[in-house]
Structures are given as structure tokens and as C-alpha cells.
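Teaching assistant here, posting this on the class forum so everyone can see the example we discussed in section. The complex has two components, and the goal was to see what a joint structure prediction looks like when all of them are supplied at once.
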Amino acid sequence: MVRIAITKGRIEKDTCKLLKMSGFDTETIENKDRELLIKTKDDIEMIFVKANDVLTFIEHGIVDLGIVGKDTLDESDFNDYDELLDLNIGKCYFAVASYPEYRNKKFNGDKKIATKYPNIAKKYFAKKQENIEIIKMEGSVELGPIIKMTDAIVDIVETGSTLKANRFRDN
Amino acid sequence: MFLEECKYLIPEENGGIITKNVDNLRKTEGVLRTIFNEYGFTETLTPLFEYVELYKSVYKDFDEEKVFKYIGKDGKVIALRWDFTIPLARHYFLQNTNKEARYSYFGNVYRKERTYKGRNSENHQAGLELINKPGILGDIECLNILQHSLEQLRLSNLKLELGSAKLFYRICDLVGDKESLKNILFKKNISEMEKFVLNNNNLDEKLKKLLLRLPRLCGDIEMLNNIMNNIDDEIILDALKELRSIYEKVENNRNIIFDLSMCPAMEYYTGLMFKVYSPFSPEPIVRGGRYDSLYKNFKRDVPAIGMGYYLNNILKVIEGKGE
């Protein structure tokens, strides 16, 4: 038996398609309700969890495989895993985004950045020889500039529609 | 408020061995001590306090953030014991001898781990260093002790995985880009390897084929034999032959598998590298390898091989088995 931890949501759906295409049974996954642990006819056990928990389960040897985004791997300081294959699903890129004024604005002190990815954000700005103040958020980080708590956000962008809806520009 | 809570809380760094598993810990140590003694190893106990500079002088990419340290009386930075290998190398050097030496050790090492991940920063270790016994004879002595000890510990379903630093460094030489290759192999990253081979189109075709297969070259002696039929490069072939002949000469090889993409965890590994895995521990329970260039840091050329038993992981295995 193989046990796999899969990131809930978009990655879960795309993985399911890949499994189906490769001839695996996905019936139990498609028909699952709120179950967290599913067994398929191919003797695969799957657990559906939040991205960071995929890493925790790998780290503790609870699962044999995990399917998780590169953003989560890069943000985590856990390094002791094999990163076997890029499945080419859920493609996104990282962006610094804010209102169009941000680009030409002069800053007196450190920029304030709202993000779910403090490590990645810090590294990016350090490369540009900038120190920043990070406000870590869990949900819609776009709120940072909207409520004027931060100057910009660092986040992953897939289609850019959220940025557009808030009149943000990706820098 | 905190003062009151402190009475009941233990800092995250704790070793997690308090009562119920002390018995298992001491029994395990006892088994290992008996075997190490039988094979003629002298038990040592290196200091708990060392200069951080000692480790920095040997480990090129020493991660100081993981060290517990303080400023000593002399104003220099002192580390809590991070490993036994380096202090024992120094000890051997101070003996000013060219003889074979056999040292064993039992004690704690201290490495800061991330919090709330079920990892301890205080780790119980046992291990040995076999100094100045070069080549395959030293390797086999070490593996025989290992296999003997694993039998005595009665842990089932173990896998002893062998790799070769010689193989790794030769492939790096042929490719020329050691850093990229190491990052790819360390993660067994099939996708990145495909990109790497595409971007390095000038490489020899046979080498490219090997590189593409390398992240998956984990398996038994049959896998090793198959690969050897397809290799021309003499140094690679030598490294693989060495692995095979170790396999043939070790007293018990039933649990041996090979990982040809194993990367040297420490820069100083030069030959055989090995790890022991159990289904009940996500991390290896034993790690070891040959490091013939370590002593160069002490301006000596002395071959050595050593291994460390990660007792906290072994305890997890004993608990996991429900014994």
C-alpha cells in the first residue's frame, strides 16, 4: 500500500485528473464527501490536507509521497525530502503587487509588505539590497494595501484576476 | 505568570527521554557497548564544550545557526558538542601516532531543530571511528560490526543502503557543475535533472543517459550489475566495483540496497557512504561513511571510517514495533 498526502483544493483536482489519465481508480476521490482519508481500488490511501501539513506528514514518515506546491517547499525551512517530479499542475508565479503608484513612490523607511511567504519575500528584497517590514497574513493579503496597512504584497499569481479586480499592478 | 507556568513546562529543545524509554535507551547502549568492546574499540568521551572554530575549520558550510553556543571565559565562542567525529580526529592527531585506532563513544549531541515539528535538539548518539585502516578492509570491518549490532538489537525489516562519494565526485568532475548537480541529486529531482541535461547539451551522450537515470538508481545488487554493464568510464566503474565487492565480502548482505545518487552529507566523505532505514522511523537510524580527507584539516593524511547510531530514532523504532 502507498500512502499519499495531497494538498486540498486546486492541486487535489488536478492530481485527480492526472491519476485518471494514468489509469488509476479515482471514483472514491471524486465521490468523497468530507472524509479526510480515502482508500482507492488500487490500494492507495490518500489524505487531503493543507499544504504545510503535507510537509509535516512527509517529515514524520506518515505518508510515502506528498503532492504540494513549490511555493510551500520554498517557504518552509524543512529540507530533508526528495523532490521527485514536477507535475506541471497549478502553475503560478510570485509577484510583488500593489496600486500603480507603488512603482514610483519614494519610501522614507522600510517598505511594508503583506504576505503569506515571509521567507521568500525577505530573500527577494534582500537580493535587491532592501530591508522590508513584513506583516504576515493568512488570508487575502491584497487587503494589506487596500486598508493601507502595507505598501505592497508578495503572493503567488495564477491568472491575475484578483489583482485586476483590486486595480493592483504586478511589479 | 510565566514563572508559575515554567514549573511545569519543558523547553522545546528537550530530548524527550525521561522515564518510560530510559530502559530501552540503556539496553540499546548496552548491546552496542558489548559489541564495540568485542571488536576492540576503546570507549571515549569527548568534551561537551568545544570552540565553534573547531567545527568551522573542518566543515566548509558549517551551519552555525544550529549550534548552541555562548561566549566563554576567554571571550571566544563555545559550542555545545555538535558531533564526536571532529573532536576524536583531534584526539588522534594529538596522540602523534600512525597506528590503527578504534574509538567508540556514547553521549549527547546538540543541534537546534525547528520548533513544533516533533524533533529534539538534544540527541543521544553512539558510534565509532575506525582510524587508519584504509580501503575496503576498513569498510568491511565497519559494516560487519554494523550488521552484527543490528541483529543483536533485533530490529526487523531494516534496509542498509550503500552509496559512493567516489562515484558522486567523478560524475561532478565529468559534468563540471558540482553545485547544481548536488542540489538536483540531493533531492532526487527527476524534472530538474531533465532540464539540466537539456541545458548542458555538450555533454557526452552516454553521460547524459546516466544522468537522466541517476535519480532513480536505487535498488538491489541486480540493479547495480545492470548499470555496470552500461558504463565505460573507468573511475565510475571502479567506484561501482568497489560497492559490489563490499557487498560480496560483508558477512551478511541480505538487507543491502544501493542508492547511486546518494550525495555526501559532509564534504569530507571520500568513499563508501551508508544509511540504515527502518519502516518505523522517517530518518535513518544509522549513518556513516569513509572520510579519508578529514584529517587533512589537521595537516595529516589519515584514512578513516566512522558511523553514528541515532538513538532517539532507534527508540522510535522500538516503540513503533510495540516492544
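For the discussion questions: Chain B has a mean pLDDT of 92. The radius of gyration of chain B is 21 Å. Think about how each of these relates to the inputs above.
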